[in-house]
Amino acid sequence: MGNNKRLFIETYGCQMNVYDSEVVISILEKDGYTPCNGLEDAGLILVNTCSIRENAEQRVWGRLDRFLQEKKKRDVRVGVLGCMAERLKRELLSHPAVDIVAGPDTYRELPAMLRRLDESGEKQAETTLSLKETYADIEPVRTDKNGVTSFISIMRGCNNMCTYCIVPYVRGGERSRDPQSIVREAERLYRDGYKEVNLLGQNVDSYLWKNPDNPTETVNFSQLLELVALVAPDMRVRFSTSHPKDMSNGVLYSMAMYPNICTHIHLPVQSGSDRMLEKMNRKYTVAGYLERIEKIREIVPDAAVTTDIIAGFCSETEDDHQATLELMRKVRFDSAFMFQYSQRPGTKAARHFPDDVPTEIKTRRLNEIIELQSAISLERNTECIGNTYEVLIEGTSKRDDNSLFGRTSGNKVCVFPSLGHKPGEYVNIKVESCTSATLLGHII
Ligand code: 5AD
Ligand code: SF4
């Protein structure tokens, strides 16, 4: 059992899962584990999972079969963490590869679960959801590659109950983390050389911390943003995800006031049809969404706006779909994440609305959405040609060793020939050309 305490962790799903994996590494390091680079070297393989769409789960089942091969060769323990662990505890426990199942609020239990497993040889599972756990006191062990940009989880869970979404069931109710612990984490990252922090929450606009000792003392999201922006003027602050029903003008004013709060808002719209929005329980209308966009452009004129769109939600008609395309043309998002609706067992949509848009139609609509968005993204990027942007360098371009890449404040990736600058430095880039995904330019 020489490598018993060598840990390999694989992460699927959102940035919040990446953050959670860093929390898990920190918890296990305190228990004597050390991370290793390949699963062949590991005494403990963990997989942090996502349940948002069916294909996210399919991928993990495939990985479990791969871990089983490893298990047949040698003594290795396998644990499943995250959203799928919460949703499919029993099914996962019946997979021959799996020894441990731990839901998103149970990571502090992992060392004890592993000990019980080693002592008894019996599979261990913990999936209790908490109303309090925010892992506020745990210093995550950073796994990012660049040492320049990092994430801070500011809240956990979700109370929105969008009818299609599994998140409230697998991540529990919303809770906000102590702002002082967030600021301390940002300060620590800055001391370690990081130049950008990304504040993460399912709905950051509903961040609200109440002092447990004095409930009249509260901190809301725009106040938190300012606290983090004040950590260092040369450390950028980003955040996601915003919710159209909750995004306040206060956040926009903070963004306008602090040059280091990046001018990018990720504001998922999901659909351009009021009937679909109502059925999704999004609690805003197309008109309400457009009013938010107008406010963004009034208060922060150069802000980039990105979105999420779902194609083929229950009972979506051709007219509903056209309304989504119409909204996309009106808003002209800088970029978008676009998905086909995937029914998730246990959600309100799965219980009450038939998943009645045939797969071919979902796929065709999604393709139309993707095609339109890539034309709009190209137009948006073309509008940047000739302009100069401050870019934070993140590393060497994947395609060309002599080029560097970084992002503008609006989160656009920018590639340019290296003049010997290092990751973590800011440079001004004049944009000369572009694709729908990247700006190309040179340092001035
Ligand atoms: N099917 C397809 N997409 C979904 N999303 C959430 N739930 C589903 C689902 N059941 C998308 C939404 C959300 C993003 C994170 O994932 O667009 O904003
Ligand atoms: Fe993240 Fe949602 Fe996937 Fe969970 S289900 S990992 S919260 S995207």
Automatic annotation (TrEMBL):
Residues reported to bind [4Fe-4S] cluster 2: C158, C162, C165
Self-association state and partner proteins as the record states: Monomer.
Domain Radical SAM core per the UniProt entry, residue ranges: 144-379
Record-listed [4Fe-4S] cluster 1 binding positions: C14, C50, C83
Keyword hit for Nucleotide-binding: no
UniProt keyword terms in alphabetical order: 4Fe-4S, Cytoplasm, Iron, Iron-sulfur, Metal-binding, S-adenosyl-L-methionine, Transferase, tRNA processing
Cofactor: [4Fe-4S] cluster
SMART domains attached to this UniProt entry: Elp3
GO cellular component: cytosol
Organism: Candidatus Coprenecus stercoravium
Function: Catalyzes the methylthiolation of N6-(dimethylallyl)adenosine (i(6)A), leading to the formation of 2-methylthio-N6-(dimethylallyl)adenosine (ms(2)i(6)A) at position 37 in tRNAs that read codons beginning with uridine.
Annotated EC: 2.8.4.3
Entry annotated with the keyword Iron: yes
Protein name as it appears in the record: tRNA-2-methylthio-N(6)-dimethylallyladenosine synthase
Pfam families linked to this entry: Radical_SAM, TRAM, UPF0004
